[in-house]
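Usage example:
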Amino acid sequence: MSDSYTSGNAGPSAQGDCFVTLTLKESGGITVNIQSKVADLFGKSIRDLCLDMMEYYGIPDAHLTIEDQGALPFTLRARLEAAVRKAFPDSKPFRVTDHSGVFHPSEKDRFRRSRLYLPGNNPKLMINAGLYAADGIILDLEDSVAPSRKDEARILVRNALHEIDFGSSERMIRINPFPEGILDLEALIPEKVNCVLIPKCESREDVIRVDLKIKEVTSESGIEHPVYLMPILESARGIWAAKEIAEACDTVVALAIGLEDLTADLGTQRTDEGDESFVARSLLVLAARVAGIQAIDSVFSDVSDMESLKKTALESKKLGFDGMGCIHPRQIPVIHDVFAPTSSETEKAQAIVLAYEDAEKKGLGVVSLGSKMIDAPVLKRALKTIRLAETLNRIPKNWRETYGT
Amino acid sequence: MAHKSDWIKNAAGRWIPPEINGEKVIPFKGIGKHRPSGNRYGPPIRTSIDYPPDGNKQVESLKDALVKSGIRDGMVISTHHHLRNGDLVANQVFKAASELGIKDLIWFPSASFPCHEPIIEYLKDGTIHHIEGSMNGALGRFCSEGKMRGVGVLRSHGGRYQAIQDGEVKIDIAVIAAPTADPFGNANGLYGPSACGGLGYSLADMFYGDRVIVVTDHLVPFPCIPMQIIGNYVDFVVVMDKIGIPEQIVSGTTRITRSPDRLLIAEYTARFCDAAGLIKDGFSFQAGAGGTSLAIGIYFHKMLKERGIKARFAVGGSTEYSVKMLEDGVLEYMLDAQTFDLTAVESMRNNPRHADISIFHCYDYHGKGTYTTMMDVMILGATEVDVHFNGNVVTHSDGILLHGIGGWQNCLHARCTILPVPLFRNRIPIIRDEVTTLCGPGELIDVIVTERGIAINPLRTDLLEKVKNSGLPLKSIEELKAEAEALCGVPEPVEFEDEVVAAVKWVDGTVIDVIKKVRRNL
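Running the assembly step on the lines above writes:
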């Protein structure tokens, strides 16, 4: 046999990546040809890594070519594994035991102002993604990955989740529609995912089957933390079913809207003003509020136009959305700034909380501020506003002591 | 590291050979410890009656000028780098010398660029013996592989001026490419098709060169005003069709980085400066024209504007962004030693607050003071730093010489020297146990800013105290190093031959380190 199997990306544009060619042989042991710009400093470690993996997979005779553009070990291993699994589809995953894939359990109503999309087959963007303090990092297996690359992207994303520290960001994946999505969930849910984005969601059933599959995988792999769901509605049918989708199960934490596909489905063009999607966006916000979950707006695709991004985000906030998608880290601070509470919103929230606490101390049954009654939802929203203001250092943690002085 | 028995350990702990290119070496003694005495070097006395009374010093060709200058084997020929990667003159000088059969010249450029790759031909055919100046790209690789006959000598911009002034290097023939000149030799870089702004790097060459040749592609009748180059120092004027390629001299658009990592580093740097109380009315700074430096400048601009305060002066490479600061009233004076884009050239022509200065003003060790010690914030780069805050700017971790020192060593003397650098480049960690080549001692490097945290030199307890509650990601340099190695792995040691291929001078003319020939096992 002299079959060759490849994986990864080649050429100078594939920085932080590598292209692996595995050629199975009858004899001659393992030979490795490394073409790397870091060969002087990492040639031996790349060679050792190749030999370790061939040993793990029980491949005695093969020739490996590694065209390397400075890939980190998690990428090298993913590319090698993908090539091996093309040759031997039944092979087991290769997992390193030591890893820094720090995991923080999430909460159903945590802030989801920004979520940063990362193409699932591009390792370079993953490495530092956690540094930008997005509320969520989405490792995308769907639209950003070519159909023929789904397997290798899945392995790369798995390694990234296993080894990379995404900081305080919620760890999200956008899976493919079923049945491909089943493979995504089986491979990735064991790597401590906080939230799964369900693309092109159109019905309650679309949500339920993902939820059931996740529960199956979590119970098999002994995962106890909740894995939340964020259905993305990107068709007329999906928008129409927004309420049943939002209420499909209790792990749904937000509804997101995908405007590129939606406007195409509506037979219109996406504009900066967004008139064409006004009703759809409002419907989605309504459905989310009925279900008591968050509403998340689409991405803004011109990464160099911060002014228009800000305008779009302000519009979003006005419609009731809790956050937006990002495709470049530069967009994150702009979005955070817009979705941060204004000083008048913060002051009002502080007044509400203080009035409530005061009434509680006095044992009053009904709480009011001025002429307005404070009920549970009003208080909850005020507390949320304050928590966000504290997180953003807009008010000190001990604001009660300094309030009004 | 391996070294021969007669080598000397300098004050920075690096082993130095006793001689380089047959000259006795003074090993680095420590910062501010070396004080040469005696008189400054002076070129021979000339007499005006020996020059044409009509003031026309024009000769037929560059070759003609070299012959009339008395070019012969072993001479030192200097050029400047204001035409940057668009320079067409330096290669012509050595082509002419080669055609004349001259051997063993020493090329003494203020810097070299990738466009000087053809110089390799003249190193190979014996026209040039060795280079004393920066060696970039292909030239650096040629030197690193031990193919140059002599040992390269790397100096900072200020160190080049020092070496000229104290006679360590005697320029036999200075060739000054000038975008505009008159037949008497007055010249400037402000006008003409190859306009490049200032010509400050060639000032020492003009004053101290034995023979001075001005080469232009834009000859104007006497007088050429302003006289950045003073014709009374000039022997010959040569007119060429083209001295430079404009697009490679000044970039129409100096680009702010779009890399999210670099932008984050820029943001941290600006926030650090603010938290340390450095951004205040009347402060001064230097930031280069690199993408990250430009982004830092944008942050400074924004802060100053919001607070209604001004920087008193900035030194350095000027760009459209520094011009915007001048024009927006947040920067009072731009002291410009190198003009990077056309907007900045235009500004230097017209704005009296945009002053043309030379290396003598800002960096020279033998000057009666320098600007750098007066500066509040200094933003620099590095190819490597080590856990002792030592810096390297000339070689990469694989040992290959790829860059010049530029003004880097001179700039280290500022009040707060900050190196914003990525924690790793292409898997290669920037923070090492020991820098491959020592260019600047750690005691002068105050802060390392990376995308994963900021390390402050423990010597700077004042800075540590000021920023400790800033919310910035402060880490020790060892922590940063460990973080990079956890991601990238620990780089394998690089092996060198014993042969020295280049020497790195400190700002005072002593030798701080040497670069050895790389060993190729592959």
